[in-house]
Amino acid sequence: MPTPMERVDRFFELSSRGTTVQRELLAAVTTFATMSYILVVHPLIMSDAGMDRAQVLTITAVVAGVFSILMGLMANLPIAVAPGMGANGLVAYTLILGLGVPWQGALGLVFWSGVVFLVLTLTGIRRLLLDAFPDALRRALTAGIGLFIMFIGLKTAGIVVAAPAPSLVQIGVVTAPTVLLALSGIPIVMGLMARRVPGAIILTIILLTAIGFFIPTATGSLTPMPSAALAQPTGFGDLWLALDFGYLWSHLGIALPAMLSLVFMDLFSSLAAMNALCQRAGLVDDQGAMLKPTEALSADAMAAIGASLAGTSTAICFGESAAGIESGGRTGLVAIFVGLFFFLALYLNPLILIIPAEASAPALVFIGLLMFVEVARIDFSDVITGGAATLTLILMAVTSISDGMAIGLIVYAIAMVITGRARQVHPIAYGLAVVLGAYYVLLPPL
Length: 446
Known about the structure:
two-stranded antiparallel ribbon; 66% helix; 4% strand; globular; purine nucleobase transmembrane transporter activity; transmembrane; Azg-like
């Protein structure tokens, strides 16, 4: 009769993948240290939209814990899951603050986007849609979200402020201590990342938070003293199951383009990230395709649905899982250990909640930079693909993520027809362009 360790070895294929429980644990520590900044940054973003920061912190940890473990069990891949950067910006700043969507309605859109992900995954259409969307616009979508997140970080820190017309923004008071603190964090996190320091982002946040104890403000120090080191986690409060399932149908004009943005954001980012991570780990078949794609993408879709039910924005697979893979992680045990670490982090909430926005702003700027580098893979020598991608980038940064995606695709499709290259565009892309064009003509945004 096999021993418990032999059962673990067999279930997770430890021996066949050339790893051990100890190595998977070390890889999980590395992955968690690299992505733990989400416990700080995500609650701050969602609190800007009116949600309770302490409640969102608890939900963030629970969602990351549950769905990282689910990914490990379903797909046996060393990929962790947590509420994603980009989707949280779209929900908080574009939907709730920009369009005035109630946060309950925004969570409803996250739910339906997750349902769409799951249906598309189980039917195999998800890959077809990925192939149908122009490559340049896929990359522009990622880069544009990066620009959007960078701008939020700069604005949060006061590094840029509103300016009189015709300028959109101008440099803030850079000599102000709080602005200097945030500004100094940008080169620090860049330098630590360049030196491949594990957990560079969270280390920078901790350093700036500590310095904040010595920066006076009108209400005391920038960083307040914690009430305790450890405490029972805050409950889900009024966020649990508070989503408005009917908002999509009762406000179709505003909600449909926003939901499509959530769909495409996760469609591209998750599949691309999963493929890249599996390639790096050698977890691919003879044709170079990732192992267990249906299971992995289904877990990803369930994470989006589960996050909305819990009371937060879309949860996705995290590219920071690459850090654990580089440390030797090869199985779902890594994701399971990461999930357990998130549950343990629940009890650190008094320390996490004192972190000021100025300490997390450099993390937003740097994460945006990491996403923006995708622009280097866009072919700007082609005036149509390069032009449509540039338009997408600019509109996403200065208007909204959903408008940038929609108008970029519409312009691309029309330009390809005018230049006689209509056959180079997938019919599904034309269908999407028509639907989005009809939205702007018949139901102009508020």
